[in-house]
From TrEMBL:
GO terms for molecular function: ADP binding. WD repeats lie at residues 556-597, 598-639, 640-681, 682-723, 724-759, 765-806, 807-848, 849-890, 891-932, 933-974, 975-1016, 1017-1058, 1059-1100, 1101-1142. PROSITE patterns: WD_REPEATS_1 (PS00678), WD_REPEATS_2 (PS50082), WD_REPEATS_REGION (PS50294). The lineage of its organism: Bacteria, Bacillati, Cyanobacteriota, Cyanophyceae, Oculatellales. It comes from Thermocoleostomius sinensis A174. This is NB-ARC domain-containing protein. InterPro entries: 5peptide_repeat (IPR001646), AAA+_ATPase (IPR003593), Beta-prop_EML-like_2nd (IPR055442), HTH_VMAP-M9 (IPR058651), NB-ARC (IPR002182), P-loop_NTPase (IPR027417), Quinoprot_gluc/sorb_DH_b-prop (IPR011041), WD40/YVTN_repeat-like_dom_sf (IPR015943). Keywords: Repeat, WD repeat.
């Protein structure tokens, strides 16, 4: 005999789990023999309604079981089918359980789910039984497409190896979406660069695994107002993806939800084909009634039926109309239905009616939720709204909106359903467009079009879905961008005249619109305006007038060089970064704004770390010192000296008592952090000590070295406990797990190793394609982050050793990575002059701190001596007239630092190389880019023309030198032999020999014709930065970080002289045209001129204020050019040592007037001034103070 419990289990399984509480009750009581009347009386329902509930349930069971089921034969039918449901396990679910993975993305909550039993059966038949590859759920807005897809995914996830949910609500370009899909399916996936290859990767994954991939809100990438199924401009490649997903045989299913049917689905679908579409209709009577009851709306069953039919069973419409019936008719459904015609005939009319009934505060909230695009907290809303709304009033309005079903409460705040978000966005865009066109501003004053300080992906969505549509509407009426620009600027003029400094978003909105139009901001008057939420990063503001404006919440370009280190404060409120521009920046995490800049030296700051109490910031630098800073005042507290080489790393104990430092002198020094006293020096490594980490109990210290070993030190005895060997490259990073059981290490051998400290056994994590530079454990010890020169950050599951996410965004090597104290955010910084803040859970880049540095990396004279080319960290080259000092041309095209640039022997070409891994050829007269040479697998550091101009040599971080045929652009040969990157290459005068200098401390001489290395010059004790042949080709000069210049005999390889007067690294060397003297420059700011025959220093050139990167001598030997970190090219009289002229490129904010501005921190103002802005008020105060001081004397 079948028990009630067994019978119920059969029914739930047959109905795909979709029994409402009422259906389950009706089934139980029917099984027990109760009549519909008895059930209705006991439950206080209308008998007709209970009959309808039962009829719908029997219909679902009949379809599932393949025979008619009714109240009378219920027990007999279920008994016949019991064996199917009681004995057959879900094999697929069981088999896949151990390997199952899910990335639920932005999946919705389906704890409240009504009806849709038949639809779930249909989907399970198509997807689980018939193995359809591509299925679309279609229907109008609010009909429940997303909810149905989510319910299916969650209920049947056990039938798949992997489930990935992605929302297209914010219309991500396919180039953005695909990498997230690939990594959602395969956690260890490393997406390729090209889109076509990524699609093939995805297809391969879908063939290898049984996956369920859900793409929600596909209508967001389709054109509205056009023929159905047509893609928006720029999104046509989605069609290629869908076509291949449908055409290609694979084992997976891609489930779409959309209000429109994509044309690929229409072309490929068929009842016997593996591509199907399911058109959703409204909910049936039972489910619709339950929604009304949930919303507190009672009434007779016939009235409820009429109401449900009026709105075609649309769940969202039913929720909203229930609220309206209660508010307008006191909950009387009959009175509502007695109207001559429905007050709102469809969803849009219903939304219009709901919106019209909102009070002004509710209006503002709805607009701001549409602007913010994602869940928003009460505090954020209060900060956004102008004028400010009291918290109590705001909470009342939010509660009202929730009751109206216009917004929902999520764990992260308040949010709108997609259909309402789209409605509000369209309404907001139309309102702003009308106000701008008529110049009657209201909403444009109280609302921002985008939030400059928002998360990166949110801000990009705001640009795409709000700013751009407004511009398109204006362009349709005003016809040309110039007319739109003039119209917008006139609004600013009116604002300046009529409402100067009125608390308003107008100024920021107009500037954001102008930026999207690519308007020129130079020499514009934006004074006496409230300019809120303007995104001015990367915008040139030369001589722009912002005087007396309020710039609150606006963002600007920051001063950042290559970022070498990132560190969170213990409370997570601040982030410190250091870079090659010799500065430490401290950022406030709340809004990612700089609050202070610390500077006191002229060397790269290799490492920063906070003390355990967060009051002190500790830094190490190339000047061989460790510095302690007061984080509150920004003042330098103490300088610790003792190292005899560059200091690479600092670390402090968790109790704040001991500080460790290490560096190029192969030692580790322990300091008393409270007194600054040197406690001891640990010796044992045989090469630079690059990384340090204290154990959580402060009993041990781990050190990683260039000697490829890790040493564990007992801090009590100061002895080595163990030496860990296994890496086949230098150890760039070490870190203890929070429980102290594991030690992680990252190496130049491209691996991360996890060492069990008890057994000294290790596990190798090998996913990076370039050296690993930095590692960090999450606070709970479950995750490990690693950064690499391959421009990626990887997050690893410590227990399994699997890579669970790869974060892409950096465009060059990533030097540093660290988890925030709460483990939710990850910071990374690198060579691309950016700091990125990542959401650990989603992998989204939350914020990008984009830097600018005016550093000049290379200078070179033209062969005729009339022009000079300079390469810059701002990704550009500049050509200068030597006689007048005028900048003749700016060459743009590289996407990262331009490392070097040289003229061809005939003056016609300029060759440049960059951290973007390319070499580019330019027409030196027109500035036109002629050719891009690709092939290097790392940044390209140096280029050199052969004397006949037919060949070009390039050297790279990939440890190779390439020889290129300039006529064809083909790579003729790849010279291999160096074991580290190669900063410099140079041809001999006859073009037969090529010299390369490397950070592996050697110079190699190559036979150009054969590509063979015929001599290896050894003697430098540190990396080599520059090599240069004398004009006769018999001597070679090399400059090194060991503070020397060496002169070599090219034929014999003998070191003839060592020039030792520099007190810091030597970055550049250059011979005079006659070869009799040599100039050198580097880290000690001074340039030196040497007699080649005697090795005597002839003179010193004083003037540069920071590290010199490059020097060059003009063809007649009378002028020398130098350039470096200070961003100035100096032209020197070689004979007198006098600086004749300084050439200074315009900085981003050159001459911008920020006199009297408000809304900025002191650090922000200082940054603007560092980038060229002027504050006439502070300048006048300085002059007044100076004159008073003179008078006092």
């Amino acid at each position: 005999m079948l028990t009630l419990e067994d019978a119920l289990r059969i029914v739930i399984t047959a109905a795909s789990g979709q029994l409402s509480d009422l259906q389950e009750t009706v089934f139980k009581r029917t099984w027990q023999g109760q009549s519909y009347l008895k059930i209705a009386q006991d439950l206080r329902y209308d008998e007709g309604y209970i009959k309808a509930v039962g009829a719908e349930l029997w219909q679902v069971l009949s379809k599932a079981l393949g025979e008619k089921v009714g109240k009378r034969n219920l027990q007999a039918v279920l008994s016949r089918h019991a064996h199917r449901f009681m004995t057959t396990p879900c094999a697929e679910g069981t088999d896949l359980a151990d390997t199952f993975c899910a990335d639920w993305g932005e999946i919705v909550d389906v704890s409240e789910f009504w009806g849709r039993g038949e639809e779930l059966v249909t989907l399970s038949q198509w997807i689980l039984q018939e193995r359809c590859r591509l299925v679309a759920i279609l229907g109008m807005g609010g009909i429940g497409k997303t909810t149905l897809a989510a319910k299916f995914a969650q209920q049947f996830q056990g039938h798949f190896e992997c489930v990935v949910w992605r929302s297209l609500l914010h219309a991500p370009p396919l180039e953005v979406l695909l990498p997230t899909l690939l990594q959602g399916i395969d956690l260890q996936s490393s997406p390729t660069v090209h889109l076509a290859e990524q699609i093939q990767q995805l297809l391969g994954q879908l063939q290898r695994q049984r996956c369920l991939l859900i793409l929600d809100n596909v209508e967001s990438i389709l054109c509205s107002g056009r023929q159905t199924g047509v893609y928006r401009y720029g999104y046509e490649n989605y069609g290629d993806l869908l076509r291949q997903l449908g055409d290609t045989k694979h084992h997976s299913t891609v489930l779409l939800t959309s209000r429109e049917k994509p044309k690929e689905i229409a072309a490929l679908e068929g009842p016997l084909l593996p591509i199907r579409s399911l058109k959703l209709q409204g909910l049936q009577l039972t489910a619709g009634t339950e929604i009304l009851r949930t919303k507190g709306l009672a009434g007779r069953s016939d009235e409820q039926k009429q109401l449900i039919e009026c709105y075609q069973g649309n769940p969202l419409a039913l929720k909203m109309v229930a609220t309206s019936v209660q508010e307008l008719f006191g909950g009387d459904v009959a009175a509502f239905l007695a109207q001559d015609s429905p007050i709102f005939s469809d969803l849009r009319h219903l939304l219009n009616q709901q919106f019209d009934r909102l009070d002004p505060i509710e209006h503002q909230i709805m607009d701001w939720l549409a602007i913010n695009r994602e869940a928003v907290t009460l505090a954020t809303l209060q900060d956004d709204m102008v004028p400010t709304v009291p918290p109590g009033t705001l909470l009342d309005a939010l509660k009202s909106l929730c009751q109206r079903s216009l917004i929902e409460r999520s764990p992260n705040g308040y949010i709108q359903q997609p259909v309402i978000l789209e409605y509000m966005t369209e309404k907001f865009v139309e309102t702003i467009y009308t106000e701008l066109l008529t110049q009657t501003l209201k909403i444009c004053k109280s609302h921002a079009l985008l939030k400059a300080q928002a998360k990166d992906y949110v801000r990009e969505t705001q640009k795409r879905l709000i700013v751009q549509p407004i511009l398109e509407k204006l362009l349709a009426i005003l016809h040309t961008p110039l007319k739109v620009e003039a119209h917008l600027k006139q609004i600013l003029v009116t604002q300046q005249a009529q409402s100067p400094l009125e608390p308003s978003y107008v100024g920021g909105n107009i500037l954001n619109l102008l930026r999207a139009l690519n308007s020129n901001f130079k020499q514009q008057d934006f004074s006496r305006l409230s300019i809120w939420q303007a995104d001015l990063r990367g915008v040139d503001l030369h001589h722009t007038n912002f005087s007396h404006s309020n710039l609150a919440k606006s963002t600007f370009t920051q001063t950042l060089g290559d970022v070498l280190s990132v560190a969170f404060s213990p409370d997570g409120n601040f982030l410190a970064t250091s870079d090659i521009s010799d500065e430490i920046h401290v950022w406030r995490m709340l809004d990612s704004q700089p609050i202070s800049t610390l500077k006191s030296c002229t060397s790269w700051i290799k490492s920063v770390v906070f003390s355990s109490d967060g009051q002190t910031l500790i830094s190490s630098s190339e000047d061989q010192t460790v510095k302690l800073w007061n984080i509150r005042t920004g003042q330098l507290v103490e300088t610790l000296q003792g190292h005899t080489g560059a200091t690479w790393c600092v670390a402090s104990t968790t109790d704040g008592h001991i500080l460790a430092s290490s560096g190029e002198d192969q030692t580790i020094k322990l300091w008393d952090l409270r007194t600054g006293q040197l406690l001891t020096t640990l010796q044992g490594h045989t090469d630079w000590v690059l990384s340090l980490a204290f154990s959580p109990d402060n009993q041990q210290l781990a050190s990683g070295s260039h000697d490829q070993t890790i040493k564990l030190w007992d801090l009590r005895t100061e002895k080595v406990l163990a030496t860990l060997s296994g890496h086949r490259g230098w150890i760039a990073a070490v870190a203890f797990s929070p429980d102290g059981q594991l030690l992680a290490s990252g190496s130049a051998d491209r691996t991360v190793r996890l060492w069990n400290l008890r057994t000294q056994q290790w596990r190798v994590l090998a996913e990076h394609s370039h050296p690993v530079t930095s590692i960090s454990f999450s606070p709970n010890g479950q995750l490990l982050a690693s950064a690499s020169e391959d421009a990626s950050v990887k997050i690893w599951d410590v227990r399994s050793g699997h890579c669970v996410n790869t974060l892409h965004g950096h465009t060059s090597a990533v030097w540093s990575v660290q988890f925030s104290p709460n483990g939710q955010t990850l910071a990374s910084g690198g060579v691309d002059q950016t700091v990125r803040l990542w959401d650990v859970r989603s992998g989204h880049c939350l914020n990008l701190l984009q830097g600018y540095t005016n550093s000049i990396l290379w200078v070179s004279f033209s062969p005729n001596g009339q022009r000079l080319v300079s390469s810059h960290a701002d990704q550009q080259l500049r050509l200068w007239d030597v006689r007048t000092g005028e900048c003749l041309n700016v060459l743009a095209g590289h996407t990262n630092y331009v490392s070097a640039a040289v003229f061809s022997p005939n003056n016609r070409l300029v060759a440049s190389c960059s951290d973007d891994q390319t070499v580019r050829l330019w027409n030196s007269e027109t500035g036109q880019e002629l050719r891009t040479l690709r092939g290097h697998a790392g940044w390209v550091s140096s280029v050199s023309f052969s004397p006949n101009g037919q060949l070009l040599a390039s050297s790279s971080m990939d440890c190779t030198v390439r020889l290129w045929n300039l006529a064809s652009g083909q790579c003729l040969s790849i010279l291999k032999g160096h074991t580290n990157w190669i900063p410099s290459v140079s041809f001999s005068a006859d073009g037969r020999v090529l010299a390369s200098g490397s950070t592996d401390r050697t110079v190699r001489l190559w036979d150009v014709q054969t590509g063979q290395c015929f001599n290896l010059l050894q003697g430098h004790s540190n990396q080599i930065a520059s090599v240069a042949f004398n004009p006769q080709g018999r001597l070679l000069a090399s400059g090194s970080d060991d503070q020397t210049v060496r002169l070599w005999d090219v034929q014999t390889g003998e070191c003839l002289k060592t020039l030792m007067n520099h007190t810091d690294i030597v970055r550049s060397v250059a011979y005079s045209p006659d070869g009799k003297w040599l100039v050198s420059g580097g880290g000690n700011q001074a340039l030196r001129c040497w007699d080649v025959s005697t090795g005597e220093m002839l003179r010193t050139f004083q003037g540069p204020t920071s590290q010199v990167h490059s020097i060059a001598v003009n063809p007649n030997g009378q002028l020398m050019a130098s350039a470096g970190e200070e961003g100035v090219i100096r032209l020197w009289d070689v004979q007198t040592g006098q600086c004749l002229r300084s050439l200074t490129p315009d900085r981003p904010y050159e001459g911008a007037d920020i006199t009297g501005v408000t809304g900025l921190t002191d650090a922000q103002k200082a940054t603007l001034q560092h980038l060229g802005a002027v504050d006439r008020q502070s300048d006048a105060m300085f002059e007044l103070s100076a004159s008073m001081l003179i008078c006092d004397q």
